[in-house]
Design goal:
A: mainly alpha; B: Rossmann fold; Alpha-Beta Plaits; 2 domains; 6-stranded mixed sheet; 30% strand; ABC_transporter-like_ATP-bd (chain B); nucleotide-binding (chain B); Methionine ABC transporter ATP-binding protein (chain B)
């Protein structure tokens, strides 16, 4: 039955491509989360009426975030080829896509973090200061827990965007489902391969969204 | 205990300088409940934030328990803040933590280990009467319960001073009274100095020993609560006192009566302490050939004693009315003639 519907699908190859997509998405999401948190916290603390209000570092961070947020991803990949070569010694394979994936999405997530932190009730931060909390304690015990649902829904959206980016990363030979759909499916006119790859990507996206929604629900005690 | 010397705070706005607090001198004694009353924008909120260094004065000196809050910073200031805690109008609890975890928060900040935190939190929960709600989240609590958590949290590090920033303004009258009772109770039990700011004279009347009235960044009147209630000097103070002694209905009734009785003299009498029991009115009616119409009478309980007020309309010959007012004066009753508009 399945053989008849998808005659051209090489299931071993499909499985391998799925794992590559999952690997790229997972590692890129992890680093995007960490770097985005740092950027977002920096933007928030140095921003207007922040705890460490500082125009210059706020401007520099904001400029960095805005520049990398506005470069189209496909161009970013090409621009970053020299950096990737320097970091990994190769521009092939799933690892080669990671620098572009992370640099492309961390600034985007950083902005989301900043927005999430700005939503926190200022009174709660004031209360923590009135108790003698250090800035580090405020970050760890007030800012992050109080904005957790927004941080999680933000990283969910970003992870789903990353799944799409990994497909594009196929053009530099990074592998993954997008690459397979393009080379095996589109270029060799095997529509069934494209369809299966698309279904798998959809499943990945749905699972990410489901897990994200579940975690938001768990953490939101408001 | 707390000393403010020539405290000034200016904010630089884009086109002008705003003086929020203007050369305020205050001294607050250990163990007293001190109220600061004023309308919004009077500078009381900025003033109370200079007591724990959340705001730095642009001039003058703030000393709390021997610590100069206006000049210390960094670790010294953070350490000092653990002994000058604060509760807020909107409670400012962390919604991500349970009641018990919220109360444990200042202990975590102070570096108290987990084994010592737990019994302390239990004790505080009992003190504010929240047994059984330990594991509830703030979103599951009523306003009054949230403020109880706020109070427990503020007491966690055994402070010397408790600052209350409009702590009852978001609560209904009944809950307000229960929170005020709790504050009075901990003031007595822990000999805690309490400084509160409010725009409700009811709060001042119910729990404060002394009061300062603020207007446009300045303290315009200060004294024992009973004294201020008996003879308010400034127009703004009179307005605040009338919040408690005159209900809006009465004001309406008075203006109605003024319209219905174009003649006569309206006077307000104030009685304090034992005088509230004396039959001055009966003697007034017997002695003078005038009609006495009682428009309103009430008795208020303040922290320092009883305070009563009566509004009368005296109708009769002008000399007789003047003599009657003179008589009340001589009896030691605070008398004020209400002007007709």
């Amino acid at each position: 039955m399945i053989e008849q519907l998808f005659p051209n699908v090489d299931w071993d190859k499909m499985w391998e491509a799925t794992l590559e997509t999952l690997y790229m998405t997972a590692v890129a999401t992890l680093f995007t989360f960490l770097i985005g948190l740092v950027l977002g916290i920096l933007l928030f603390l140095t921003g207007p009426r922040g705890i460490y209000q500082n125009r210059i570092s706020n401007l520099i961070t904001a400029a960095f975030v805005n520049i990398f947020r506005s470069i189209p991803f496909i161009i970013l990949i090409i621009l970053l080829i020299p950096l990737t070569k320097f970091l990994l010694g190769s521009i092939r394979g799933p690892n080669a896509a990671l620098p572009a994936l992370i640099i492309g999405s961390a600034p985007f997530y950083g902005r989301m973090v900043q927005i999430a932190l700005a939503e926190i009730d200022k009174g709660v931060i004031e209360a923590a200061r009135s108790m003698g909390a250090t800035t580090w304690t405020i970050i760890r015990k007030v800012l992050l827990p109080e904005s957790m649902p927004a941080l999680i829904s933000g990283i969910t959206v970003t992870a789903i965007a990353l799944v799409g980016y990994t497909a594009m990363a196929g053009i530099i030979g990074a592998g993954g489902l997008g690459n397979l759909a393009y080379l095996d499916g589109f270029q060799r006119s095997r529509t069934d391969v494209t369809i299966v790859a698309t279904i798998l990507i959809l499943i990945i996206v749905f699972v990410i969204q489901w897990v994200g929604d579940l975690l938001v629900k768990r953490t939101d005690k408001r | 205990m707390i000393k403010l010397e020539q405290i000034t705070k200016q904010f630089r706005l884009s086109n002008r300088t705003l003086t929020a607090v203007d050369a305020v001198d205050l001294e607050i004694r250990e163990g007293e409940i001190f109220g600061i009353i004023g309308y919004s924008g009077a500078g009381k909120s900025t003033l109370i934030r200079m007591l724990n260094g959340l705001e730095k004065p642009t001039g003058g000196r703030v000393t709390v328990n021997g610590m100069e809050m206006s000049s210390i910073s960094g670790a010294d200031l953070r350490k000092a803040r653990q002994k000058v805690s604060m509760i807020f109008q909107h409670f400012n609890l962390l919604w991500s933590r349970t009641v018990a975890e919220n109360i444990a928060f200042p202990l975590e900040i102070a570096g108290v280990n987990k084994a010592e935190r737990e019994p302390r939190v239990r004790e505080l929960i009992r003190l504010v009467g929240l047994e059984g709600r330990e594991d509830a989240y703030p979103s599951e609590l009523s306003g009054g319960q949230k403020q109880r958590v706020g109070i427990a949290r503020a007491l966690a590090n055994e402070p010397d001073v408790l600052l209350c920033d409009e702590a009852t303004s978001a609560l209904d009258p009944e809950t307000t009274d229960s929170i005020l009772d709790l504050l009075t109770d901990i003031n007595k039990r822990l000999n805690l100095t309490i400084v509160l700011i409010t725009h409700e004279m009811h709060v001042i009347r119910k729990i404060c020993h002394r009061v300062a009235v603020m207007e446009a960044g300045r303290v315009v009147e200060m004294g024992d609560v009973l004294q201020v209630f008996r003879s308010p000097q400034q127009p703004i103070t009179k307005r605040f006192v009338s919040q408690v002694t005159e209900s809006p209905d009465v004001k309406q009734a008075i203006s109605q009566l003024v319209r219905e009785n174009p003649d006569g003299t309206l006077i307000r009498l104030g009685f304090v302490g034992e005088r509230t029991g004396e039959p001055v009115l009966a003697r007034l009616i017997r002695t003078f050939d005038i009609d006495v119409n009682i428009l309103q009478a009430n008795v208020s309980q303040t922290h320092g004693g009883t305070f009563g007020s009566i509004i009368l309309n005296l109708v009769g010959d002008e000399p007789a009315v003047a003599e009657a007012v003179e008589f009340l004066h001589s009896e030691g009753v605070e008398t004020e003639v209400i002007e007709r508009d």
